[in-house]
Every structure is written in structure tokens, then in C-alpha cells.
Amino acid sequence: MPSEWDSHTALTATGDGLLGAELDPGWVVGGGVNGGYLLGVVGRAVAETIPAKPHPLSVSAYYLSAARPGPAQVSTRLLREGGSVTTVSAELAQEGATRIAVLATYGDLGALPDDVATTAEPPAIPPLEECVPGSLAPEETRRVAPLMERFDLRFDPACVGWAVGEPSGRGHIQAWFRMADGHDVDPVGLLMVCDALPPVTFDLGRPGWAPTLELTVHVRAVPAPGWLRVSHRTRNVAGGMFEEDCEVWDSAGRLVAQSRQLAMQPRA
Amino acid sequence: MPSEWDSHTALTATGDGLLGAELDPGWVVGGGVNGGYLLGVVGRAVAETIPAKPHPLSVSAYYLSAARPGPAQVSTRLLREGGSVTTVSAELAQEGATRIAVLATYGDLGALPDDVATTAEPPAIPPLEECVPGSLAPEETRRVAPLMERFDLRFDPACVGWAVGEPSGRGHIQAWFRMADGHDVDPVGLLMVCDALPPVTFDLGRPGWAPTLELTVHVRAVPAPGWLRVSHRTRNVAGGMFEEDCEVWDSAGRLVAQSRQLAMQPRA
User: Fold this and answer.
1) What is the ipTM score, two decimals?
2) Partner residue opposite A103 with nearest CB, options B87, B103, B218
3) With contacts defined as CB-CB under 8 Å, which chain B residues touch A98?
4) Which long-range contacts (CB under 8 A, 24 or more apart) does B50-53 make?
5) Is a pLDDT exceeding 80 seen at residue B14?
6) Which residue of B has its CA nearest to A59?
7) Which residue ranges make up each domain of chain B?
8) Which of A128, B61, B176, B247 could form a disulfide with B154 if both were Cys (CB 3.0 to 4.6 A apart)?
9) Does the B4-109+126-264 domain belong in CATH 1.10.230.10?
10) Domain A4-109+127-264: which topology?
């Protein structure tokens, strides 16, 4: 049985050189379709275009207009095919309006040297059973964010005070993550995981939707099966914007993705 | 008298909808032309294309092939013109080969709200007179990196042990920065500053050129006149690649740019 993720990101050749997608309403959050899901759809389209380079290494997305559930078209253009990496430009459009523009360099993560000299530390999150499940969110929240039904999220209790009106003020949210249907996340799926949690501004006492201007994800390794740990931080809220840094660690203790996005502050 | 930076990034309309640049040999480092300089040239081309949105907010560059000094052509394509931000796609090419592909969102930094709620701390660098000037670099280094003549760099002594064969191993380099001719850096110039220092892998005892795959810069404010402080760090060297995070702080103590690049490890 295919995973929900595979079904929701399925693509069909439309005959005019484009790939057709059907954006599922289950990924709506606030006023539009989740940006990580959009990036996953584009990321899969790129992977299908260059089968010899199956994995995203770096993907940058610029968000131009809010997407809606329903049909979408992905166009891709080969910029450079190299021996170890290939770079592609891609756009996802609906009804003639571009939703996101993307640059992406793909390669084969399995072919990389296996040296690791990281000084980064995995997020210290209490055991699963001590964390706060996303399913405890109020009915009202779940109604405007059907996105949440896609995941099994277990929030670090120290970073979830915002849910009861007591944000920590540190600009930090972290959680255990897996897909609701229990299927494991592949490298393209990591593009989505980096934009799956609530905006880190929740933890600064600024609730509300935070539109992404730009999101770049570096995929550093194929995730091992099992639960992922996801951490979001911001350090510079200024000029109506903030950066959100995300790390994704796998069950083997490997840093598998690093991302940064520039987003607009939610309106008070 | 125009600044060296203005001269080296000057553009001329070529009549076929492109902008022509002349890449100056003074920006060569290792086997090619510095990637930050290339991004500055493209960044200026974008600014000239959309004069109502003079400042880069977010710029992502994918490096496809090594550039050489001499003529180059910049093409731009408008993706979306909005009320407060405009997004453009751009490419810089030489002899028909694309050197870098860029996505960029521009706006007016002066029109942003002036709230700042940063938890980031400016780099703690000793006073200028206690730092190590880049001009002390060996003749050999300066010959393969004429790039260094463009800047007045004063390295934090705690981060420059690599210059005498004693890297700290922390993956951290920081320095005071200004242009050699004393001219101040503008927001487009910040795109270059984020790729001006030696690769942070020097501080890990891995000398050599580190080719950039991808570089994204977020410009967060117009820099105040005077010396800048630039900090580079890496936390995850793995699979033959590393991320390099850069911050640029201005003389008024404001975080004016944040960037991250994904680069290939130098060969031993």
C-alpha cells in the first residue's frame, strides 16, 4: 500500500512537458497550502526528471503566491548536468500563476564519502512518552490546520508553553516527528519536514500564520528509519521578518537536514 | 570618484535585453573568480532591473561552473512584482555557459518596520589594533588570491591559528571587514561580504579551495557606515560537504546579513 505522502505527491506527465500534481486539501494551514508540501511536490518532480541523481542536496524555494488545493503544474529546466551533481530550475503553477520558484542541486547521497566530523549536538528532547502529542491541540486549531493530521508530532514540553498561553520567549520549538501513517521519510520528504512544525514565533508569543518568503534546505544524509527529531530556532526578529533555522536528526543520531527560511512576522 | 566596488560591478545594456559585465581579475581566488563577487554583480543587475525595490532581502545562488575574468552577461526574468517585494530569476553566463543561477526577492529595507527583537549577539572580536591584518599573509597566498587586496581584513587572533599551522579545530573564523579603498558597503555589497573570508574549513586544518554549491544571503538592514564584523562558522562537516554560516554586523551593532552556504570540502 502506498504511503499517504507518495499518494499526495504523485505526478502525471501532462503531455506538454509538464508534470501534473493534485494538491491535497489535507495540507491546508491558515490561508493556503503548506509550503513544505509544495516543496516536496516540486522536489519529487525534479527527482523524476533526473533519475541518475535521486536525492536533493540543496533546494531553494521562493514563495510567490498562496497555493490552493487542486490541480497544479510543475515545469522543470535542466541548468547543468555534472558527473556528481545536477542543477535544475523548477516552478509550480496553478491557473497560470507561479506559486513557488525553485533552484535545486541533486546528487546521490549514497555515493558520498562517509566521513562525519560534526560538532552539532542532537536536540535534547525527553522520551516520547513524556512529550506533548500534537493530537492534544484544540479542535479550533485542528480545523484551520488539517496539516496537523498528516504527522505524529510529540512536542518537547519545555517548548510548548505557547499552546497554553505561556510561550518561553526563547524562540525555540522542538519535537519528535513521524508521518501519521507510520511510513518513513525519504530524502525528498525531508524538504517537507523542514516546514512542518508551527512557526517558531509561537514561542515568542506571536501567534498567527507566518508567510515564508524563502526556504533553503540542505539534505545531508539519507534518514535512517524511525522517528525524527526536529528543532526550530530563530535569533533575529527584525524589520517585520525573522529567520527560522531547522535541523532534522534521524534515529541513528545523524544530522540529516539543515534548513533556514526567511518569513514575515505574523500580524498581531 | 567611484568606489572600486562600483567600478568592478558596473553594467552596460547590451541591446539584446542582457546586461554586460567585465569580471575584474582582482577577484580571482584559487581556480576561479570569487563567488561573492559574482553574486554582487548579479545582485546589482537585479537592482537596476527593478528600481522601485532597491535592496536584496533574500538571494540564493547556485554555482554551476567556474567563472574567469573578462566579459560576462547577466539575464534577468521578472517572476512576480508585488506591493512590497518583487522576485526575479537571474543568470550570469560567459561564452554561453551559465556560471551561476539566482533567485532573488528585493524590497525597500528603509520601508520596513523598525522593530528589532534579536537574541543574537555580535561577534566578540578584540579591538582593531589587536587583530591580525590580512596584509600579513605570505606572498604566495596573496599571489593565488588577489581577492585579498580588495579588502582590509583584521582577523581575530583567536581564529587565525591556521595561518601559522595551528588551526583551532572549532570551525570558526571572524574578522573586522572593510573595503580596501575605504568605501562603505551597501546592501548589494553585503552579498559579496558573506563570501569574502577564507573558507571556515581553514580553522579545521583543511586548507584549500572549497567550491560553493549554494549560497543564500538574507539582508536584514542597511549597514551603517564604518567597519563591519564578519563571522563564519560550520557545525556539520559530513559526506564531503560542509555548511558555512555567516553573520555580518555593522558599526551600530545591528545584524545586517545572515547567510548559509553549502560547499564541498577542500581536497587534502
Assistant:
1) 0.97
2) B103
3) 79-80
4) B50/B78, B50/B81, B50/B86, B50/B88, B50/B106, B52/B86, B52/B108, B53/B85, B53/B86, B53/B106, B53/B107, B53/B108
5) yes
6) B214
7) 4-109+126-264
8) B176
9) no
10) Porin (2.40.160)
